[in-house]
Amino acid sequence: PAILSTTLLLFMLGMSSYEVPRLIGRPARIDVFTTEIQAATQNAPPEFGISSALGMALLLICVVGALVSFKIYSQVASSEGPRRLCLLALTGLCTGAGIWATHFIAMLAYDAGLPIAYEPVTTAASFVIAVSATTFGFAIAANGFRWQPCIGGACVGVGIGLMHYTGMHAL
User: Fold this and answer.
1) 104 within 8 A of 122, measured Cβ to Cβ
2) What is the pLDDT of residues 133-165, one digit of tens each?
3) pTM, entire model
4) Beta strands in 9-96 (DSSP E)
């Protein structure tokens, strides 16, 4: 936690120059400006509340999802027929679900100070997009020809982008 807090504070200090300053007072007739990031760094170390718990869950889901997905995908090359298709589908499901869950947990962890809600049909559509795109990308990459892993990776990347924008539209 200490290394993470220090890294976060250094990042926020570096990003403070990108925010528009706002006037917070005039002590001794000197204009004092600050930004939201600078204000957050003054409250260091940061509070570890629900956002930190969601951040830890996010990290765990992301790492476990990636490890499980690549473990399953490593068996695709030695498989044939229906088993190969099932392994590709399972890889796509694990990867897509992991990416989708990571995205929505991060959205839940972000506190914009406003109440938020998600439209269920669009949220479900973003899940279907994530799973479909990753399954399709891994299926293309699994054939082993020279450029197919690059094309499969591009399909996964486009799918993640589509899932992200669909998920943001669900707000």
Assistant:
1) no
2) 999 999 998 887 888 888 988 999 999 999 998
3) 0.66
4) 22-25, 32-34
